[in-house]
Amino acid sequence: MPPMTKQPNHNMPNLQLSEIWVYPIKSLGGISLSEAVAEPRGLRYDRRWMLVDENGRFVSQREIPKMAMLATALDSVSLSVFWKHNPAKRVTIPLDINLEQLPIIEVEVWGDRCAAQVLPDEINDWFSTQLEENLRLVYMPDTTKRWADERYAPSGQHVSFADGFPYLIIGQATLDELNRRLEQPLPMNRFRPNFVFTGGEAFEEDNWQAFSIQDQKFMGVKPCARCSIPSIHQETAERAAEPTKTLATFRKFDNKILFGQNVIWLGDGEPLIRVGDQIVR
C-alpha cells in the first residue's frame, strides 16, 4: 500500500467531479459524458463488450496496441466503432439486439471465466479485418455475474469486463503532479478512469474509503496497479518509456506501480451521476 498522504479537511466542499468516462468495449477508446447512470457492475455501458481471441481470452492494447486508435460513440439505439483518423471506416452495433439469438461462450478475463454472448459474424469480421487478428466481439448479459475480488471488495460485488473493479477514480491533482515530473505532459486518457475530480491534493484518493458523489455512496477498495497501457499513445498507438519510467521512481509499492483508486458503488436504483457533482468524504 502507498504511504499515507496528508488528509484533507473532509468538511470542505472543495472536491468536484470534473469528468465522466465510459469505455463500452474493453481497451478501445472512451466516451466523455456529462452524466451517466451508476450500476453495480460499473457505469451503464462501461466495458459490457469485449474482444476475445479464438480461445475466448480477452485481448487488449497490451497485445494489439492499435486498438487505442479505435474510437467509440453511443446514441440512443447503437454503439459505433470507428478509426479515430478515418471515421468513415466504422461498424454499428445495435443496442437492442436480440440476445436470445446470440450464442453463449465462456470467456476469460484475468483468470476469471464467465459466460458471454457472441455478436453476429458481420461484426466479428469487421474487427478481425481491421485489427488483423481472428477476433470475436462478445457482450456481457445481465445474467452473467463476474465477482469483484473479495480480498478487497465486500462479498457479492460484481463487475463488468473491467480488469478487476467496477469504477476507477483519479484526481486531476494526481495527474498534474505526474506531469510536473515529465518532460512531456500526458492527458488523462492514458489512465482510463471513469471519474476525474478537481480539488484536494495529489494522490489523496490513495486513501479514500467511504465517500459520496452528491448523494450516492461509493467506497474505495484498492489503489490501481498499472500495466503497460499508459505507455501507449492513444492517438498513434506508439509505445514509449513514459510514464512508467517516471512513475517507477515515486509510485512503486510492493513492486507495483499505483495510480488511481478502484471503487465500488454502494447505492441502488439507477441514479444519474453528473459532471459538477460534489464529492464528500
Textual characterization of the structure:
- The chain is mainly beta and 281 residues long.
- It has a single domain, classed as PK beta-barrel domain-like (M1 Pyruvate Kinase, Domain 3, Beta Barrel).
- It is built from three helices and 21 strands.
- The chain has helices at residues 121-131, 172-181, 244-250, and strands spanning 15-22, 31-33, 35-39, 42-43, 49-52, 70-74, 78-83, 86-94, 104-109, 112-118, 136-139, 146-147, 158-159, 167-171, 195-198, 210-213, 216-225, 252-253, 256-265, 272-274, 278-280.
- It has a seven-stranded mixed barrel.
- Strand 6 (70-74) and strand 7 (78-83) form a beta hairpin.
- The chain is globular, with a radius of gyration of 18 Å.
- It starts with 14 loop residues before the first strand and ends with a strand.
Q: What structural keywords apply?
A:
281 residues, mainly beta, M1 Pyruvate Kinase, Domain 3, seven-stranded mixed β-barrel, four-stranded antiparallel β-sheet, 3 helices
Distance N to C terminus: 20 Å
Runs with pLDDT <50, length 5+?
A: 4-11
CATH fold annotation: M1 Pyruvate Kinase, Domain 3
What is the spatial order of strands in the main beta sheet? Answer: 1-15-14-19-17-16-21
What fraction strand?
A: 35-45%
Total count of helical runs of at least 4 residues: 3
Summarize the structure.
The chain is mainly beta and 281 residues long.
How is this fold's topology laid out?
Layout: E1 15-22, E2 31-33, E3 35-39, E4 42-43, E5 49-52, E6 70-74, E7 78-83, E8 86-94, E9 104-109, E10 112-118, H1 121-131, E11 136-139, E12 146-147, E13 158-159, E14 167-171, H2 172-181, E15 195-198, E16 210-213, E17 216-225, H3 244-250, E18 252-253, E19 256-265, E20 272-274, E21 278-280
